[in-house]
Amino acid sequence: MKPSKIKNLICFSGITGSHAYGTSIPTSDLDERGIFVWPIKNRLSLFSVEPEASSELNEETGEKEDVKYFDLHKFMTLANKATPNAIELLWLPGDCVYFCDDRMKLLIKNRNAFMTKQALDTHSCYAFAQIKKARGQNKLVHNPKPVEKPTREQFCYFIPAGSHRHDTIPLLETGIDLSICKVTAIPHLKDAYHLFPGGNGVFKGDMLVCESVPESERNHVAGMLIFQEDGWKKEVIDWKHYWDWMKERNPKRWEDQEKNGVDFDAKNMLHTIRLMFLSESIIEKGEPIIRFSGDTLAFLRKIRENAFSYEYLLSFAEEKMAKIDSLRASCTLPEKVDEVFVDNLYRTILEMS
Fold it and tell me: How far apart are CA 22 and CA 3, in angstroms?
């Protein structure tokens, strides 16, 4: 659904992302986020209401932008689960707020109801997932995959009849065409087959298919075929993962980083470290920190400027995670939100609408 459809239903809008954190640079995009409230008559309709309104293009200028609004029900569901993007809106710095009516002011007044150990865990676990993502992206950068999908033949090996097992030869080096061969299973020997000439093909679709061979042809065995099926399946998964990542990644961001010899997503790592500082703030102050300043901001900016190595940032992040885990033991926040209180708050906001 386009944002223009809910223009008159908005109760809150503002700018999130690097502009809110204090880490923006002149070329940083504006990430617009907000909340709208469907009228009661829409909620009581036989047909469900849409929970989000988003756009990647400005309808007037045609320029790319990042805009997303949540229906109040969807937003409070996310806030109950302490989803980082929802929590961020409740503590958005004043200079990033475009519009805030009385309904949203009431929600902000009661925002500490969403500060729980669950919020701490959600932010910490998300940060840890981002660390693993950074590791994975670093691995992808260093291990590019070919454009062509891996073939089964690349995982086949051949042992000529009468030779010893150490004579195993990669199939692609033999010139053997499996499309005009056939195989029979070798009992009790996994991934190994007797290979015979004169068949209709070893592979049918994604499967290796064994055929029966008449007694008169069994002396014509060419040798043993070894098909590492598990290795082929794993390589197909890795190949797909790599090209999905290549398709979804921001080419400009990686182009800039690779020019500077950086082999990981520095912006992603910045957000990882930022969430860890935010988690510390939840423990120590009972509230998340959104706008950074001083030495912490300087450190985050240096991450974005590619001032640190991948190994250093991973080490820093792991130490920070260990500290957060130790602090959690003495945290006095409630385990989860008071569902009765939050539900009544939701109903009150609906009544105000």
Answer: 26
